[in-house]
Amino acid sequence: MIDYSGLRNKMVDEQIIKKGIKDERVINAMRKIPRHLFVNEALAHRAYGDYPLPIIESQTISQPYMVGFMTEMLDTAKTHKILEIGTGSGYQTVILAELADKVYTIERYNTLVVKAREIFNKLNYNNIVMKTGDGSLGWKEFAPFDRIIVTAGAPVIPEKLINQLNPNGKMIIPVGDYHLQKLMFIEKNDEKISIKELSGCMFVPLVGKYGWNQ
Ligand code: SAM
Fold it and tell me: CA-CA 20 to 30 A from 187: which of 1, 61, 145, 169?
């Protein structure tokens, strides 16, 4: 078996720490999680590069820096209940599962859910609850959430998600047009909502009732 720990530490040093991520918990999680397991075996040697990679169903595993940045912004605590929309490969899910109490994750392709579940089991994560479905609706049964992360680009911030955020919660979501978005950071302070625009980004579309049609 190939040892990827050298490449993984290089990724964290050069793409995460050098680019400004400071939260030690995020840094340690990214040093720990074997990112190469979340891509096709033929792409494993590229899993620690500074770019997104293709996964099945024409979707992508996000660039490592983007995962680090979004996770740091969420400022997750061990007591938190998190909702993730867009499981994809499951890499971001596991980073969150390292930092939070429980992660609820929704993916629209069942093929991706099945694949991600296999990896979660292999790595022994039992604080992840997943389902196949339209995440733009949120997950009412388990709301409210302390943190919400959306890893697909939405045309607008889905109101249902804001409603499912706890009164002092935080949420991060790419919003914009079909190909190009801006990361939006939403904070609730005793129900008062503030929205901040962060950096530009490119995510695959959020397809669903409160996303794009296709
Ligand atoms: N964070 C993931 C990772 O680390 O692999 C990357 C996620 S990928 C950029 C976005 C994912 O969102 C895709 O797998 C896509 O199928 C999913 N998606 C798009 N619209 C969705 C929706 N309405 N509900 C749930 N998942 C959705």
Answer: 61
